[in-house]
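Morning!

This is the sequence you dropped in the shared folder:
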Amino acid sequence: MSALLATAESQLWGIDFTSAPCKKKPIVSAKASLFDGDLSINDICYWQSLTDFQEFLSQTSQPPWLASVDIPLGMPTQFLEDLQWPTSSWHACLMAIKALPKPQFKETMATFQAEQPTGKKQPKRLCDALAKAQSPTKLHYIPTALMLYEGATRIATASNVSVWPCRVIETSNQRLVEAYPALVLRSISAQHQKKLRPYKSDTQKSDTKPSDDHKCEREWLVNQLTSPGIKSSYGVSLTCSNTIKQAMIEDATGDTLDSVACCIQAAWAYHHWEKLSHYFPNASSVEGWIVDPTLISPPVSTPSPKHKETYL
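The structure's back. Tokens below.
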């Protein structure tokens, strides 16, 4: 592990992103420390603007950090080629997307999808298919394309941030990977021979009320995340205050819970940073890759680190 990250002031972040943050629907960020395999969630931050997210990325004077962010970092290569968008590098692709006015970007995406046959309207990257994740080209319901437009482009412009596997900067103190929190929650559900049940209520809709069933599922997930079982899959034990536990349970959107799940993926990425290319040999530097041990083929259990290390 690079000595740049192994400092007493370094931080881990799990960030559940939204493309249009506001007071009612902010970007939710879990801030954590890691010591000898114990991941401690210290705070939950609520960023109400994209400016807050960009400021986080650009602050080179803050302590070293590694963030796992729930944003698709790239588009499928074939999709990019079909639209004649750059495929020479991740940065070139994202800068071409950033140069498009938002209405034009949305129109381009919508036109492409309208011209495609059923089954090919929303292409996926390899990692999306393996993770059973949404296509990064979606404009509605879960607007992953807008998350990329607003989030990944800002990451690309933050030249100080090392982004695996898209732009690896060996000397950077700020490192970032792509998260998909559902993988963490599916993993702990599978340990109990059950499928992950719905745990989010769409409180953005005026005719939708938070479901007691969803809250019960969030409570069960929180209990499992803070139990010893998570260590066999991600190599860490999770601890947090009762206040943060309650926030995960009470947040009907599921975003607070997702941010903590992202933080668990950040901890795993920290422990295995130097081996990510070995674990994910098919990762594309243009498309990006979801960093999670369940996408290793075959999946491996993660032993706890035998040496002591501090990552705050």
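Headline: Residues 1-299+307-312 form one domain.

More detail when I'm at my desk.
O.
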